[in-house]
Design goal:
Blueprint lengths: L9 H10 L17 H8 L1 H6 L16 E5 L16 E6 L6
Antiparallel strand pairs: 1-2
Helix pairs in contact: 1-2
Length: about 100
Amino acid sequence: MDFTIDFFNPLLQIYRAVTRIDIGGREVWHPHERITLAEALKAYTNGMAFGTFREHELGILEVRKFADIVVLDRDLFVVPLEGIPETKVKITIMDFTDPE
């Protein structure tokens, strides 16, 4: 039987990547594996496109590429790291058209 062992919340996962705090919110797990916020955001955007062999059409905001954009209620680079999981998505913009 398969079941979820973690939450599918990108903002929570970004928080965990930069802090390495475990699912219980108490223990720092492998602190030497922390990455920067910029690296975590790149992993969720460009990294996902690369991992699916679609970096030529996805992953960054660029002319002629598909774009799914979220507008957040705060600047992740300004708030304390502890504020990342509480960040709310104000709007999501998705494009399903062919860029050609």
